[in-house]
Design goal:
3 domains; alpha/beta; about 20% strand; eight-stranded mixed sheet; 2-enoyl-CoA Hydratase, Chain A, domain 1
């Protein structure tokens, strides 16, 4: 497969996801006089300034229930009246906007980004509530439905603005979300209540209309729950823009630096020509870095030491950043001899840890370009202190005070994922190219290990598989492993925020930096105990 065919395959699937519940569901939404979630976002934001989070959420999941494209909610950072805002919009074309387990996790991820970056949140509410057949996976835990409302309260206490516009259904426990926001808008024909007419009749025998229980007029004039009653979606979204326009303007925290810059003059497919699609082919990551950073801005750190990781300072869109990248060339060192690209050795881990600490001293956001096979193993590596060096990296990444952004450009294997700021280490954003692979170990090694375990189990049960059965079993294990290491599998589970094309890398980083540099925590950089 070529880069072009892979990108075309992913682009086609992404376009299908953006249709939500499909053309017929979109038509039904329009028949109600309502916009779709994506139309609402387009109407409220400025000039297509939009960075989506979790497009691939729930991809190929919940198929026994008809699927849940994009987990029935659209999240991302948009620009409204010049202010960057995290937008969370229920997609009513997918199961009436019902919450699936991944819906909760996606909303929580969006809230987390907003809390870390101190950006306002806008909720465009149009949801039937919890998807009841899966309620046991949605309702009770600390990363489930209730956590969203807890976050609403914590975000409010932190002084981060929250707006909600109810533009359809808002029922049961979901009703708490908009009411926990600073300002609440509601359109005519929408409903906000803990229990709808059918449930009220069943539970207490009373018969009331939807309007009497939770209509916009009732909440505006009787309960006093909403702040603004609007006739339709368009009016509600104009009101949103008016209210966002009253907020402080978006800026950059003085601790960070952004200079003027010029765009590099490179072809759209330049990165695909530099980085091979096959993980077996080598490349020098410095060639990739040159295509991503501002022209002539990269200054390499400890260039002759720990060469399987390249570190250095650069500017991207004028932002001063540090870069940590796995190099995929074979190098010969004076002390260690040959070192394989994509593998983290004790010297490269030491260099990375030291560089991350320096970025924290200088308030430089860190960009991780991750294409890693893992840490080096074997007697020499253990005796050189690879565990100690790796622990040092984990320590400084975990305690880093500057924003971290990760892009997986190839493999993401084992503890290498941790050392290069995988999802567990709080990157503000984490992206993957379509060719990215996620796993504890490489496919061949894993398939061989799993196969050996299965064969041993068969032998214990008194059956010795023949050559044909062995081959069938090997193929089954390999196919299953290939599916689970695919970048779409990772994105479906929100292990990455988005899958981007290589050509989109620079602009994605610039937008991400514009989002994450608006706030810097006023606290010293400190680490835990470092074994040196």
């Amino acid at each position: 497969m070529s880069w072009q065919s892979l990108i075309e395959e992913f682009s086609k699937q992404a376009d299908e996801i953006r249709l939500g519940g499909g053309k017929s569901s979109i038509a039904r939404q329009h028949e109600k006089g309502r916009m779709t979630a994506r139309e609402r976002i387009a109407a409220v934001t400025d000039n297509d300034w939009w960075q989506e989070v979790g497009l691939w959420a729930a991809w190929n999941m919940y198929e026994e229930w008809g699927g849940s494209p994009s987990a029935s909610v659209i999240c991302g950072v948009g620009q409204i009246c010049g202010r960057r805002v995290m937008i969370i919009a229920n997609d009513a074309t997918v199961k009436a906007g019902a919450f699936f387990p991944m819906t909760c996790k996606k909303v929580l991820r969006a809230q987390r980004i907003a809390m870390q970056c101190r950006i306002p949140l806008l909720y465009l509410v149009d949801s039937a509530g919890v998807f009841l057949p899966l309620q046991d996976e949605i309702f009770p835990d600390e990363d489930d439905f209730g956590r969203i409302f807890r976050n609403n309260a914590v975000i409010s206490a932190a002084g981060i603005p929250q707006l909600a516009a109810i533009m359809g259904n808002c029922v049961a426990g979901g009703g708490y979300l908009p009411v926990l926001c600073d300002k609440l808008i509601m359109t005519e024909g929408s409903g906000l209540y803990l229990a709808g007419p059918a449930l009220v009749k069943s539970a207490i025998g009373q018969e009331y209309s939807s309007e009497e229980l939770g209509g916009a007029e009732m909440h505006a004039s009787i309960s006093g729950t909403i702040d603004y009653r609007e006739p339709d979606d368009a009016a509600a979204l104009r009101r949103v823009r008016e209210l966002v326009g009253l907020m402080p303007e978006t800026g950059i925290d003085p601790k960070f630096r952004r200079d003027t810059w010029t765009e590099p003059k490179v072809a759209a497919d330049a990165i695909e020509k530099v980085v091979p699609l096959s993980p077996q082919q080598r490349y020098d990551v410095r060639d990739l870095i040159k295509l991503v950073v501002d022209p002539d801005s990269f200054s390499e750190y400890k260039a002759e030491y720990g060469q399987t990781i390249v570190c250095g300072y650069a500017r991207i869109g004028g932002f001063h950043v540090g870069i940590v990248a796995n190099n995929r060339t074979v190098v010969n060192t004076k002390k260690e001899g040959m070192q394989f690209g994509g593998v983290i050795y004790h010297d490269s881990a030491d260099k990375e840890a030291r560089f991350i600490m320096d970025c924290n001293q200088n308030w430089c956001p860190i960009i991780f370009l991750q294409d890693v096979m893992g840490f080096m193993v074997g007697r020499d590596s253990e005796q050189a202190g690879i565990i100690r060096a790796g622990a040092k990296v984990v320590n400084v990444i975990s305690n880093s005070r500057v924003p971290k952004i990760t892009i997986i450009t190839g493999g993401s294997y084992g503890a290498g994922n941790y050392a290069m700021c995988g999802k567990a280490f709080d990157p503000r954003f984490i992206f993957a190219w379509p060719n990215a692979r996620y796993a504890v170990m490489g496919g061949k090694q894993a398939a061989s290990t799993i196969l050996d375990i299965n064969i041993a189990a068969l032998k214990r049960s008194g059956k010795t598989p023949d050559a044909e059965e062995l081959e069938a079993l090997r193929q089954k294990v390999t196919d299953a492993y290939d599916v689970s290491t695919d970048s779409r599998y990772a994105a479906a589970r929100l292990w990455v925020d988005a899958i981007i094309q290589p050509s989109e890398t620079r602009q994605t980083l610039i937008r991400s930096l514009e989002i994450v540099t608006g706030y810097a925590a006023d606290e010293p950089f400190r680490t835990g105990v470092l074994q040196v």
